[in-house]
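User: Sequence in, structure out. Go.
Assistant: Echoing your sequence, followed by the structure tokens.
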Amino acid sequence: MRHLDIRLKLVIILVVSVLVFWAGSLYLSLTLLGAILVIWFLSGLGARELKPIGKIKWFILAIIFFHSYFSFERDFLVFTFFKWAFMISKEGLQQGLLMGSNVLVMLLFTALVRKTSKPEDVIKGLQSLGMSVDQATVLDATMELAEMKQGQKKEKGQQVPKKGEGKEKRKLWGIIKGKVDFLVNMVNTQMGDAKAKFKSSHLAIMVTFTGIISVIRFIKVAPGLPVAPGHKNVLIIPLFINAVRLSDKRFTATNVGFLSGLINFLAGFGKYGPLGPLQFMVPGLVIDLLSPLYKKSNSIIVFGLVGFVAGASRVAAEIALAYLVGMPQEFYLVYLPFVISQCCFGLLSAPVTKLLSNNLNRV
């Protein structure tokens, strides 16, 4: 697997993903799943590398439950509790197992390709399949800067912080109240480094905001709030908006979102496989489309409105995956609180957007 051409690997991801959903065969999905696991271990990968796939276990279980309970007429008694009988549909259970295994095949094979390929090879492969020169340049530069910073910490004898650790920890409410000096300094410093490397101000903007949005995953901004999805919107959405305000190119936020999502996927944090970049790209597209509202405005109300709408779009990957596996309507009703949480944190990002806008160095 490690010696296959990266372009072939990327094409196989697409072919396998389309095949399992088009065929609709549980036997085929389970066979492919077993084959991928065999290749996984033959490639020298162990069970520990499967840990990121475990992040989606609750979604897989939700697929099986909602199909079993809501999609078809319930005809199988599971258990009784006093006078209440819990019943599921045999056909729904089979459908849930099929869709869950399809998702696992898609995600596991995508992880296999990523684990057996160097990031720079993936970038070259994407470029050969149509990625623009500017996008490839931004990816290269962003990953190079990340590696340089990690290397500098190791040279100084510092322990490289794990996800959510180190001096990057920030209190959520402090950020909302305007304590974002660390973010302003981060953007201005990164922008200065990027401007020294690139003559194009647009490339400097892209490298700066792509890199910072990518590392936001390592910043713990809401300690003790594991049930508040979307809390990082208070940092991510202001960065998107200010990238658009600084740049004179169209679809800046869309490109920043796509590339930062791709970087997180290459770094091993994408739990939705090829759909992972949608978590960043769709909010970027929404922010680009709303740019006439805020491009020349510094209104906190406008920033809040844009943040609210962009927050709703942060669940694009989950909704796309739910639609792909045919989740019943009841799932979307249960998922509504998560969407509301994303929207609320998007709304609360308005003060941060305004503070960033007032304090960032102009390109």
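User: And one key feature?
Assistant: The two ends are 44 Å apart (CA to CA).
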